[in-house]
Fold:
Amino acid sequence: MPLTVIVTRDVEARYRGFLTSVMLEVSAGVYVAPDMSSGVRKRVWAVVSHWWETLRRGSLVMVWRDKAATGHLHIETLGEAPKKIVDADGVLLVKRE
Structure:
């Protein structure tokens, strides 16, 4: 079960209440879960995605370890341009799509 990180910016208080029920808030708007299963991660993202589609305020970024992805990291975003990790001659970069 991989580490999962969610970063929120300018979102309603409901996100904080929900995310702190399943993750640790290590800094304002930064939530981590050291052993979140993929099923729980998908359900958490489904909830915050639904809220974001309804409220359309702020942004969220979720990152987790994915051995099949470039750099072994996967990124999901809401309220920001989609991003992906690319390998530029051994240096990992984040590319906005």
Q: What stands out?
A: Strands lie at 4-9, 24-27, 30-33, 59-65, 73-78, 83-88, 91-96. The chain has one domain: 4-96. The first strand starts at residue 4 and ends at 9.
